[in-house]
Amino acid sequence: MPTDETQSFGELVGVLESLIGALRGPGSERGQLVVKSEDGGTPGARTEARYRALVEQIPALTFTVSLEEGTPELYVGPQIEELLGFTQKEWMEDPILWFRQCHPEDRDIWHQEFARGIATGGPFHAECRVFAKDGHVVWLRGEARLVRSDRGEPLFIQGIAFDITESKLAEKKMKEAQEIRVLNERLNAVGQMAASIGHDLRNPLGAIRNAWAYIEPRVTTAAGPAAPDPRIAQLGGIITRELARCHTIIGELLEFARDRAPNRVRCSIAQLVDEAFSVVTKPAATMELSSALPPDLPDPQLDFDQMRQVLVNLVQNGLESVAPNGCVNVSAHIDDHDGRLVLEVIDNGRGIAPDLHEQIWKPLFTTKPRGTGLGLPIVANIVQRHGGHVFVESAPGRGATFRLFLPMS
């Protein structure tokens, strides 16, 4: 006659066997677990229901992976469908599905952590991005442990994974806010410095330009015995060119420091583009400037002078990045989704490396040997003052597209 102790032990074994069967069974469904009436609501059945509910209904994904040779087995909880859109059956029948869905940039993280965990027997900890069935990215944090036999052989890995997408997005927003704060502090400091330097240098530089304008024709065009050394004309050209460059730099410093609200008026985009094309300098005469503007494009309310400066800066940058036979194109259209004006400046030049897409908007950052690092920050400031946004799409050797989104009024 079995004692109470042996009966309890038998019920516990039955619960564990049933639970293992549920974990490895392909057809388990997520939902409320009901104890069958014929079980009489026995303590064993109730315990089984509680354990199965714990595994299959907690707000996290449970999994086990067999490491035994010849019998690869995988279990994943039904939470996988809510998390990634795959059914439990789809995931368990394809042992390498997780590898295909793991973000390519994060696969090495899993490999390294797996190798470390196997070697040390310690717990696994990893965070990575996984593509859901519909293509969107889900951040997961996995926690797992290696289970060994009494002979020390690895049997399986068991673990749990949590959806940390929201916390990752919050971290990203916090980081962006911190970067914006630091950038604004830097902008204020640079703006104050730029205003001071610009005002201090503009007057003496203007006096030098006026003096040289008077001297140049008298020292470079004399005839007869007083004819100047041929090098004077060459050096005079350098003086003229460098004075013009100094004038441009000071103009950029003052424009960057000026926080002037846009004076909005109805502007013809075609006229803006024409004026920008007339101001820029082609490093090679064979370079091409073109535009693609719909004839029925409505006139937005913009600050004409500020937006002309935006186009001049972007078009000039494009000309300086293309080959002698390259092209810079300006196009515009109305966004079908929100009715904003979309301006695009597109070049077929050398392109911009992805790791520089954020750097190029920072004041004083430049990749040009003689650049000021203010052209694109001025563009961003003007566009933001108009309530718009500017983005860059580019890759090395594939040109660049600067896309501006601006409200019509």
Topology, please?
Blueprint: H1 4-24, H2 43-57, E1 61-66, E2 74-76, H3 79-84, H4 88-92, H5 97-101, H6 107-120, E3 124-131, E4 137-148, E5 154-163, H7 165-220, H8 230-257, E6 265-266, H9 269-279, E7 288-292, E8 301-302, H10 304-321, E9 327-334, E10 341-347, H11 375-385, E11 389-394, E12 400-406
Parallel strand pairs: 7-9
Antiparallel strand pairs: 1-2, 1-5, 3-4, 4-5, 6-8, 9-10, 10-12, 11-12
The percent range for helix content is 40-55%
Total number of helical segments? 11
Main sheet attributes: strand count, strand direction, barrel closure: 5 strands, antiparallel
Which secondary-structure class do the elements indicate?
A: alpha+beta
Write out the strand line-up for the largest beta sheet, numbering strands in chain order: 2-1-5-4-3
Task: Note the gap between the termini.
Answer: 91 Å
State the CATH architecture of the largest domain.
2-Layer Sandwich
Low-confidence stretches: 19-38
Rg to the nearest angstrom?
A: 34 Å
The mean pLDDT is 78
Net shape: elongated
What is the element string, with H for helices and E for strands? HHEEHHHHEEEHHEHEEHEEHEE
Q: Tell me the number of structural domains.
A: 3
Q: Report the portion of residues in β strands.
A: 15-25%
Name of the CATH class of the largest domain: Alpha Beta
Write out the CATH superfamily name of the largest domain. PAS domain
CATH topology call of the largest domain: Beta-Lactamase
Number of strands: 12
